[in-house]
Amino acid sequence: MPDQGPSASGFQFELTGGALCFDFANTVDSRSAPKQRVDNLTGYAAFASWARQSGVVSAREAGELARAATKQSDAAGRVFREAVELRETIYHVFSAIAGGSIPSEQDLLLLGSYAQEAFSHMHLIAAGSRFEWGLDQRSRDSLMTLLWPIAKSAVDLLASEDLAKVRECAADNCGWLFMDRSRNQSRRWCDMKICGNREKVRRHRRIASGTQAHP
Ligand SMILES: [Zn+2]
Asked: What DSSP element (H or E) covers 132?
């Protein structure tokens, strides 16, 4: 999607997926085009920045985690590799679902194991008139803490009626996932302003040059 290059601190992530796990999967631009592919998740600091922008942690918590990561670079590297593995697993599972296929057993097992770990660090807390899963206070300063809400978001969605609304952007090189909450369930683009417009321009060019409307 956007053509900006990644940078750990100032980069603004696009948070248009409609689910936390999709905003995380969408930290890769042009996923399906190897030559244009840009991974905006450049390291643990960028991961912490994404988590702050997504509301997973506060600015203070993100800053503390990023500082801890610089002091424990080996551990941060391991957590970052797991984050990328979780992200790619989320993409594979939901891309399959968006395409009408069943996700692979291996991907579901991996996603399930991340979720099991996530729930082992959560407990039930009161949220108004109901209860919800929240992170244990003592788990909040672990470098891993950023992964758990993402894994939970993915399994919550898998178990939800909203699963039927999962889509992958129709642009051939985009690969962004989103929830189609449009009334007639007809949204095709991650962002009409970017991928939708690009496709419109292409269509106009094809018509203007007299070529077939099909790629
Ligand atoms: Zn797109």
From this structure: strand 130-135
Gap between the Cα atoms of 44 and 26, Å rounded: 16
Which residues does residue 123 pair with via DSSP β-bridges, in sequence order? 134
Q: The whole model's pTM is what?
A: 0.88
191 domain residue, yes or no: no
CATH number reported for the structural domain that contains residue 129 in this entry? 1.10.3300.10
The rounded Å distance from CA 5 to ligand 1 centre is 17
Separation of CA 186 and ligand 1 centre (Å): 14
Residue 191 CA to ligand 1 center (angstroms) comes to 6
195 pLDDT tier (thresholds 50, 70, 90): confident
Domain assignment of residue 164, given as a range: 20-181
Which of 124, 127, 126, 118 lies closest to 56, judged by CA? 118
